[in-house]
Amino acid sequence: MEFKKGPIEGVMITPFKKFVDERGWLAEIFRHDDLPAWFRPEMSYVSVTKPGVLRGPHEHVDQADLFCWVGPGDFKLTLWDNRPDSPTYLNRMEVAMGVNNPGSAIIPKGVVHCYRCISAEPGLVINCPDRLFMGKGKAEPIDEIRHEDDPENPFVKDERARRVHA
């Protein structure tokens, strides 16, 4: 499997507009009137990732994500279009997001994704997925196809190769 650099159908990268005053700053994470009709967040969570740590790569069968990076910390987000019926199938995207480039990324189901904390300090990530984790009452299987545990997986190999050459 060979990936080519390029945009991925359905992925939306949105820089945050910061409103700054003497108290600090404010940025809207999302507004329903700015989201595509197919995406409506169902829950949210926040995580902290230590410097150098990679989360993923994995993909979802039914879930789409809205990741938000505002800082502290900076991240490299890598995406691969793994949807055979997509016009951007096998495209790969990379974008830096975080304190130095605050913004969000909507990631459709079937798009493999991972992110690595590339700053010296831990980084904060907010996610607002359109499905409940493990369904209502946490009674369903987790909606993830995990690729990170197989070193021969093409997404893992691609991420490792890009990190070595970066």
Structure description:
- The protein has one domain (4-165): Jelly Rolls (Sandwich).
- The strands form 3 sheets. A 6-stranded mixed sheet has the order 1-9-8-11-6-13, with helices on one face. It has a 5-stranded antiparallel sheet with strand order 2-10-7-12-5, with no helix packed on it. It has a two-stranded antiparallel ribbon with strand order 3-4.
- With 166 residues, it is mostly beta strands.
- Strand 3 and strand 4 (24-26) form a beta hairpin.
- Helix content is 7%, strand content 38%.
- It has one helix at residues 154-165, and strands at 4-5, 12-15, 19-21, 24-26, 45-49, 54-59, 65-69, 74-81, 91-98, 103-107, 111-117, 123-127, 145-146.
- The chain contains 1 helix and 13 strands.
Name the CATH superfamily classification. Jelly Rolls
Head-to-tail CA distance between termini: 21 Å
DSSP strand content: 35-45%
- Biggest β-sheet: strands ordered side by side in the sheet: 1-9-8-11-6-13
Q: Look up the CATH topology.
A: Jelly Rolls
Catalytic activity: dTDP-4-dehydro-6-deoxy-alpha-D-glucose = dTDP-4-dehydro-beta-L-rhamnose
Region (Disordered): 143-166
InterPro entries: RmlC-like, RmlC-like_jellyroll, RmlC_Cupin_sf
EC number: 5.1.3.13
